[in-house]
Write a structure and sequence with these properties.
heterodimer; A: about 280 residues; mainly alpha; globular; B: about 250 residues; alpha/beta; Rossmann fold; 6-stranded mixed beta sheet; 4-stranded antiparallel beta sheet; 12 helices; BCAA_Transport_ATP-bd_LivF (chain B); amino-acid transport (chain B)
Amino acid sequence: MDPFLLEALVNGVLLGGVFALPVLGLNLVFGVVDVIWLCYAELVMVGMYAVWFLYTQAGWPLPLAFAACLPFVAALGVLLHVLVVRPLLRAPPINQVLATGGVLFVLQGVATLVFSTDFRSLGVEMPPMEVGEVFVSGTKLAAFLAALAGAAALWAFLKFTYVGTAIRAIARDREVMPLMGVDPRRIYLITSAVGGTLAGFAACLLVVQLDVHPFVGLSFGPITFMICVMGGLGNMLGGFLAAFLMGLIVSVGGFWWNTEMSYVVAFVFFIAVMFLRPQGLFAR
Amino acid sequence: MSAAVAAARSAAPAAATLELSGIRAGYGDFQALFGVDLRVAPGEAVGVVGPNGAGKTTLLRVISGLLRPTAGTLRYGGHDLTAVAPHELPALGIAHVPENRRLFPHLTVEENLRVGAYARTARAHFAERRDRVFSLFPRLAERRHQLAGTLSGGEQQMCAIGRALMSGPRLLLLDEPSAGLAPIVVQQVFALVRRIREEGLTVLIVEQNVAQVLRVVDRAYVLETGRIAAAGSSAALAADPAIRRSYLGMH
């Protein structure tokens, strides 16, 4: 096989791993709370700034900055739920989308005020690794492995803990949950914290690959939503698989044509999927 | 968490008397219950029978706090249940098997049981109670890793009762456990209810299948259009000509 095509395929899988985390977070919150966090990519952006600030300005070691980013964005997720989502739980969906969409612009605006529109870079890069005939970016490979570990940890949490099992149960039947001794309000809070943690995790993986600026969310936010819808909104496994499919389309499209064209191909593929399987590729 | 619930959690919940008096409730403009008085003492098995739409399910929903009464008092031992959040009832020793079972079809049998043991007071007893549920319902043990949605109707009812037992209740509320089941399976379900109450559980069971339920309970109330129309021991109700005509299909 053409080594450059092989490289594109490998990069597609690595990219898919990074898409997977925000997709899982967004799907989790939507499946449980039934509200779409339109500002999800901007939570990731704030997390990226947090890592950048702690590492380059405050002089923290990078692992410590990463470790602080997770609870920080988790707390933002809880705040978002308490201040914006919870008061609108019974409101029409359009109001919920407009409200979280408003938070998107607020976060972009605050980031611009505080950090200006300059592109900020961590300036860390791991050396590329040669695997067989293919050169792989060490940073991307590390981010991919971390994303897989994060997804596995999420799966274990949902599969093996009381709270995780209740989270999966409530996505299907809200009203019956109090009879099980489950307080739905608490489950929504925990889910929002987990959704925020996943955004923080994604921020750690993206900040080593992308420069941070207030509008960086636009470079992965729209595709994150597309992947969620493609996999079937609220369907965790479908979203996970669709993330890799989208990663491959973008990466191989970029190899055959160029990066801009690859996103065009990805959107065309998305539109085709919406015509053929509006319920999502992996809906049962 | 209320102080009452906190106190109840310090020890295993004690059996207590459930007492409803003058309960009125409804949905919006529609009133379903018009002043219901009802009492269930520890160790009793009590039935509420009546036609479809009489308010039987509403009555259980009021007891477990899913619907708040508009008037009347609702007490369980020393607790005013109208002041307790519904999710705190398992800690007080009350479990509710809802109408249509309401299992989580996409979770396995064992995961359904785990959700039933969610209350903090119940988690420590998970393995022991699961094994007890499996000994009561051996079919569930065979199917523990199967998705609950793939069980037969009778197995789903067993799983729903098992899930309620996971919280270690002293009072079990059962809503139409025989609904939608084949006659032979109905027999099995009622045999299980009898076994559960022989183990000392207090049972309040709502049923349309009057003939069957009167064989299991000590006493029953007849609920008609939101009011208690008659009450008495199972034997007395089964012998009552009006009941026999309306509910037992006898003339």
